[in-house]
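Journal club side-thread
Mid-discussion, someone asked how the predicted structure for our own chain would compare to the paper's figures. Pasting it here so we can look after the session.
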Amino acid sequence: MNGSDSKKRNILLASLVVLVATLACGLPFSGYTTDSTATPQPVAVQVLPESISQTVQVVSDDQVLVDLYARANASVVNITVYASSGSQVLALGQGSGFVYDNQGNIVTNAHVVHGSSEIEVTFSDGLVRRADLVGEDLNADLAVIRVELPEGVGPLPLGDMSTLAVGQTVVAIGNPFGLQGTLTRGIISALGRTIPALTIFSIPQSIQTDAAINPGNSGGPLLNLEGEVIGVNAQIETDGQSNSNLGVGFAIPVSILQRVVPGLIENGEYNWSYLGVSGNDVTPVLVEAMNLSVERGAYILMVTDDGPAIQAGLRGSNDTVSIDGRSVDIGGDVITAINGSPVFSFDDLLIYLSLETSPGQTVTLSVIRDGQPRDIQVTLQARPNN
């Protein structure tokens, strides 16, 4: 091999070395030259941020639920209620509850403990203790019982209604069919549901979930992934065909719990504001029948005898007409605001009365009567027990 061939071979080998080194370092490759006299070009090297080189710890969804259960389960209890029948004491049923404070107050549903003569609480480790009824509110289907807490068992934190959203993951912990310490997972299916109470009144702002809720879950907590109580599991939709979960359950919202429970602990009862009306939402057929200037509001069908509404001069329906074959009750007042807060539906009126007012308070209702707007002041009373 002559000198010229040897020189070409050395240049080729050097070029291959550069190519391999370039690819190995991940640098951009734009070709190379065999001209040994070419001026070397600077190579731009990107320095990655220091944070990129740090290890990122990813927590799985499973681990979140495992940790939540480990924190919360000890604060969820199984409640067994008994009633006397002659000389015997019979078990009436079971439900769930959760520790509310360090004084041993436990929140559950009123329908779990109502009518019982004895109450027993079973903790997650199997310890059973007797409990006393502190108070119950049938209007909210909430009750408080009190028990001596075992060492190391504390309250669950309460969440915030304003942070909830449809689609949010939630967890129910309770004792379905007596199976203690059962966790189920789902999402918030809807917010702002109005569900029936144990009286003629309704519970506003309730949470709908597809987390499995079955008999025995009643009174247990509905939790967000932070382990905060956002509701008290109370009802399921069975379509009249079954006593078990069909994917639609309801929880009494934490907003109601926060108002009612302190009153039950302090006084054994809670007094709700009472307006004394019943009604519906404004509908297109009502707008047509009454020639209304608004499309939304709370329509008063009836005012209760001797209630605050009739005393203030509010009017219910006084006539019936037919619109396209449909019977429509007309003549009632349409409430469009309360204390300046817009009322777009009858639920809006119920929510404001439930969460923002107290008996004895005077509120200003903006209404439309005979096509004209007017303001009417009403002094609220406490809901009658019957």
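Post-session note: The radius of gyration is 33 Å.
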